[in-house]
């Protein structure tokens, strides 16, 4: 009899726990532009608060309309550093708001886009930028890669700049268009 009185409370607690496990992350009210993608790396980011786009005309058109650079994240589901950056940086609501305000964010699956990844790695090497995974690139709306990095932690540590510091540097460089023209590499974009 004693345990019978607690059964409704247990059921309610169980229901609340189940609902909480399927709720979207804080700050994300609807899926971003990755909703129709089939890559497991892209679908994993579908409910992140960053307004991710897949690589393509829509993203570059949006960047041109807003006159902001592209933030490109290339990663893979098997890459531990990619997962760490997603967990510590891209799911942080304040960081996501900063990204959404200053960039058009594009996510690419390393395994699903080998030709694009090869082009990006070659471009980063030509202009002496780090490569590897995750591959973070900053690109003008017309497709000029002008800045980039590898893994960027959420906070500055061990001499490595934070994501926010690198993004601020990318914005400062983007503001100096003549220098971007000199110190960038034009990517081949699909028309």
Describe the structure in brief.
This protein is an alpha/beta fold. The chain has helices spanning 7-22, 40-44, 57-66, 80-90, 93-102, 114-126, 163-175, 177-182; strands at residues 53-54, 70-75, 104-109, 135-139, 144-149, 185-186. It has a single domain, classed as Glutaredoxin.
Order of helices and strands: HHEHEHHEHEEHHE
| Rg (CA only) | 20 Å
What is the C-level CATH assignment?
A: Alpha Beta
Apparent shape: globular
**Count of alpha/pi helices:** 8
CATH architecture classification: 3-Layer(aba) Sandwich
Query: Order of strands across the widest beta sheet?
Result: 1-3-2-4-5-6
Class per helix and strand makeup: alpha/beta
The CATH homologous superfamily is termed Glutaredoxin
Strand content of the residues, in percent? 5-15%
CATH structural fold name: Glutaredoxin
Unreliably modeled segments: 11-28
The averaged pLDDT comes out at 86
Distance between the termini: 72 Å
Total strands: the figure is: 6
Q: Describe the main β-sheet briefly.
A: 6 strands, mixed
Helical fraction = 40-55%
Tell me the domain tally.
Answer: 1
What does this structure look like?
This protein is an alpha/beta fold and 191 residues long. The protein has one domain (29-186): Glutaredoxin (3-Layer(aba) Sandwich). Helix content is 44%, strand content 14%. The protein has eight helices and six strands, in the order H-H-E-H-E-H-H-E-H-E-E-H-H-E. A six-stranded mixed sheet has the order 1-3-2-4-5-6, with helices on both faces. Strand 4 (135-139) and strand 5 (144-149) form a beta hairpin. The longest helix is centred in the first third of the chain and has 16 residues, at 7-22. It is globular. The protein starts with 6 loop residues before the first helix and ends in a 5-residue tail after the last strand. 35% of the residues are buried. Residues 11-28 have low confidence and may be disordered.
